[in-house]
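Could you help me review a protein record that somebody else here produced? What it holds is a sequence and that sequence's fold in token form. I have pasted the whole thing underneath without changing anything:
=====
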Amino acid sequence: MPHRAEGPFEVTMTPQSESRSDDGLTLGRFQLDKRFHGALDASSRGEMLTAMTAVKGSAGYVAIERVEGTLDGKRGSFVLQHSGLMSGNERRLTLVVVPDSGSAELAGLSGEMQIRIEEGGKHFYVFEYRLPDGD
């Protein structure tokens, strides 16, 4: 049975590079630094690549981040892979644990995370996960 961890987090995105084309496409690269609170008490660092089109609200991104800390009291690290698409008001976002990326007490971790951004820019996560020993 999957477990559920949820709570707030802060994120800092630091631009690393940007290129613009004549047709209005902008490609960007960002460094991610996050701090998770709640059942996931952890920090993460990662890289994000973005593509923003000339059409307002249409964009895509991919990212990889390494999360290190505790998850419901179990210490270790794991890697999250992101894939996001935006078109007008439609948004698709997938965050999954990279298979076999869990370490220490989080070895064998699998799961998916959802992110919610509230008015005012506050970020929250919901992480549904499994560990191989049934915990």
Remarks:
- The CA atoms of residues 4 and 99 lie 18 Å apart.
- Strands lie at 3-20, 26-36, 40-52, 59-71, 74-87, 90-97, 110-117, 123-130.
- The longest strand covers residues 3-20.
